[in-house]
Design brief:
52% helix, 5 helices, mainly alpha, 0% strand
Length: 132
């Protein structure tokens, strides 16, 4: 058993044999021939049906693709997206708050305002005079 270990140790410590260039060329030719034979049956790009994507740049898949491309973490151009979202939020709040604060702005044109139905008389009050 020690003879086997010693022979293995000697083999590992010795220099590697020099490669034969003719044997190398023969091995490469054999490997290339086997590869060509193996990959001859299935070549790339010969699918019978096209892929289910829109190739004309229109349709839902193209829109989804554009959205996903814009939202990729690698795409650092977030400024237009954030500016558009902020603008939309501000406009929504402006319309909602205007309707809440001034509901008379959103009534039909043929409806008379509530203040025009009954005119109010102006009451004048006397202010107390300051003492001298």
């Amino acid at each position: 058993m020690t003879d086997e270990f010693e022979s293995l140790r000697d083999a590992l410590q010795s220099d590697a044999p020099t490669p034969d260039p003719e044997a190398r060329q023969a091995a490469l030719k054999l490997a290339m021939a086997r590869f060509q034979e193996k990959s001859k049956a299935a070549s790339q790009g010969t699918a019978t049906q096209p892929r289910p994507i829109s190739s004309d740049g229109m349709g839902p898949s193209a829109i989804w693709s554009a959205i996903m491309t814009a939202l990729k973490p690698s795409n650092r151009n977030w400024a237009p997206v954030l500016a558009g979202g902020a603008s939309l939020a501000v406009l929504t709040l402006a319309v909602l708050s205007t309707h809440s604060l001034r509901p008379d702005l959103f009534r039909p044109a043929d409806e008379a305002p509530a203040s025009a139905a009954k005119p109010r008389a102006r009451i004048r009050r006397r202010l107390p005079m300051p003492c001298r």
